[in-house]
Amino acid sequence: MKKLMAGLLMAGLLAVGQARANDSKTVLSLNAGIQTNLFSTTSFDVVQGTLDLRIGFRLGSSFQISPEFMFATSDKFHTDFGFLYPGIMLNFVARDFFLGAGFVLPIIYGGEITTFNPAPKINLGFTSGSFILTAYIIMWMENTFSSSLNFPNFNYVGATFGYRF
Q: What is the pLDDT of residue 7?
């Protein structure tokens, strides 16, 4: 799985290079939001604040590749424990809407840092002028802890509102 993530990142870098060579428009966005758990045993009992930074590179008229970095607080909005999600998304863009899929690398910090397998992420969004609204799901693919964390039983869903520069 780590080879797959490395391959996707390399493809992303090549696509970014191609996009820059074509003089395409680059969009930077800063987004804030919330996410909650969607587990097989319990759901919607944890609320986390999120803050993310995305850079979108247009690939032709219909696609965009977006490296991103998201920070999620602990369930009580504390910053001494939380999640980091660096990742890359490929979005299909149609007018003011976009739909994308990609991978993030879940990292838990707090005392020590623990990295997990790359997790699929799916997003759906709407843009209006400089504003962007996004809904997403992150599906952790771990199977080392217990049966309650096996894919697709350990998910996070969220929504963000942001500003595009």
A: 54
Q: Give the position of tokens 């992150």.
A: 138
C-beta of residue 48 within 8 angstroms of C-beta of residue 77: yes
How many domains does the structure of the chain reveal? 1
pLDDT tens across 99-155, in order?
Answer: 999 999 999 888 888 888 899 999 999 999 999 999 999 998 765 555 445 556 678
Of the chain, the end-to-end C-alpha distance in Å amounts to 34
When pLDDT is averaged across residues 46-71 and rounded to a whole number, the result is: 93
**What's the CATH number where 8 sits?**
2.40.160.20
Query: What is the CA angle 4-114-30, rounded to 5?
Result: 75
Domain with 21 in it: 2-164
Band (56; pLDDT cuts 50, 70, 90): very high
Element (H, E) at 131: strand 131-139
Residue with tokens 């217990």: 146
Which amino acid is present at 122?
I
| Amino acid in the structure at residue 24 | S
Do the Cβ atoms of 120 and 137 come closer than 8 Å? no
Q: CA 73, CA 108: separation in Å to the nearest integer?
A: 10
